[in-house]
Amino acid sequence: VADVVIPAHHDDVDVVAHRGASRYAPENTLPAIEMAIAMGAEQVEIDVSLSADQQIILLHDNTLSRTTNVEEVFAGDPRVVADDSVPQLFTAAELATLEASNWGRFAVGSTSDDGRYAGAYLGTHVPTLAEALALFEDHPDVGLLIELKAPALSPGIEQILIDQLLAERAKGFTNPHVVQSFHPDSMELYAHLQVAAGLDLPVGQLHFVSANLGDAFRAQSTYADGFNPSHGSLSAAAVAEAHQAGLTVTPYTINDSARQAELVAIGVDGVITDRIDRLQCVLRGE
Ligand code: G3P
Ligand code: CA
């Protein structure tokens, strides 16, 4: 990338695969996670919510309509509301019956990208966190960035996640993992509960904005280890201020190489991206 000087520490910038390798496989599915690992991501970001039977499942939206065929599979079911069926009313086993890849560039018949991805992942379901974690078994160095998507709609998810992570760790799961959310109350609660449970995972506080975060840094550094802001107007001064407060900075979601390079140049600790490949080129100075 021309005209951007990348500082010597760029090897330390984490490549974070947003919703898995979501440019190349349907977001928050097992193939997207497998692809992110295969492409060499250092961390894989996923979004999680609770199912009706209190299982942690992967889904970005608050409803199932954009990415699944819930209206077709559960036609006539009173839990199905046009464009507004919520995952919390379905069990994990029911969610596993939903097709999660027949949309966007992955839809059967899509002409995006010359139809290259059309139907490529058919048969992919809404996975549980347990299924996702199993994919990391042979890749102990790859980290997870677990986003509690809408904790108010999944009450108790903080403790359920802690219990599940503790159980996985007891079985030998050692991958680095960070928990994050846009919701400070949930993150503060999570931080408190994990200490009580004997866990000490880094906590990330997401922000929709990237300017004037000084007050938030001060207030939220009591429980957060990292700030993960929208990259929009993120400045070198803000990154330095966060670092001074002992916080890492990992902005989202940057797919443009030039902007990725700018963020690396101002000292961010990681970049959340759909375009792992572009970020890897930037970090290699290509
Ligand atoms: O990891 C941060 C990023 O994923 C937040 O935005 O909407 O993609 O979950 P969103
Ligand atoms: Ca997310």
UniProtKB/TrEMBL annotation:
<protein>
    <submittedName>
        <fullName>Glycerophosphoryl diester phosphodiesterase</fullName>
    </submittedName>
</protein>
<feature type="domain" description="GP-PDE">
    <location>
        <begin position="13"/>
        <end position="283"/>
    </location>
</feature>
